[in-house]
Amino acid sequence: MAGDVITIAHGGGGTRMQDLLREIIFPLLGGDTLNTAEDAACLELPPGKLAFTTDSFVVKPIFFSGGDIGKLAVCGTVNDLSMVGARPLYLTLGLILEEGLRLEDLERVLRSIAEWSTVAGVRVVAGDTKVVERGMADGLYVNTAGVGVIPDGRSISISGAVVGDALIVNGYVGDHGVAVLKDRDGFGFQLDVGSDCAPLNSLVEAMLGVGTVHSLRDPTRGGLAAALKEMADASGRAMELVEKDIPVRGEVRAVCEMLGLDAMLVANEGKLLAAVPESDSTAILQAMKSHPLGADSSVIGRVTEGRKGRVSVLTPLGSARLLRMPSGEQLPRIC
Length: 335
Fold this sequence. Notes:
This protein is α+β, with helices and mostly antiparallel strands. The protein contains nine helices and 13 strands.
């Protein structure tokens, strides 16, 4: 393909755009559905309730320790479907390309999308490409939509937590936000911390294979704190956490303390918060610990009676503090 960067002509609908699709995008993403170049994908769905989600990804830089914007887009969309108990099946992909983006960087992102779609067991079935002027898009933005099916008899909702439920998280929190931050221009952190970005659908299926799950939430923007507060508000319950049981890596804690951040408010991309019946919590925790994405899972608290939306944290000193949300985002453009 002529040239080594994206130009405005690649979004103009002419031969340069067709070259981009046929020489780079279609071959790397593959699939008979994409290659037909129809205006819409015609899909077959198994029995069950349809789940549908959409998301946009604007991470900076687009390549970071443990992932890239392509992996992030696949995993983020798959995880949104998984949080309602759906089995993800299909993705759409909208690419907003900035004039001057290197074609080798685009190819790298597309290879990542193809790789992680295969890992997650989903297919990219439709898409769109637009090109914007230089300086308008940080290189590349990605928009996705995801389709999945919730099997009959399965009911998981952010409002589903009930009094007595155990609250479980599947590992260390804050890794993604710190990994992106350390790779950003202007920061020179030498840390052995990578993004936790991962598709969680297989972990959710493992959990559902041994017990009941009332509620799930993936703690992305706003971190674990936002997920807890949203779950407490939606269910009309209160939640009590034990601070020492919340897994945070020492390196992540140190960076957060140095920058005045709260690790519970830092984004994750491969974590989930689950509210499960106390009677099933041991079996579910064991299933999670037996899964590669849940080896560091921990029970961090309980759902309780109390004021709607109240989330309290028991500190190591024996005192309790209320978990409060910030008015804005701690770290911009991390997912």
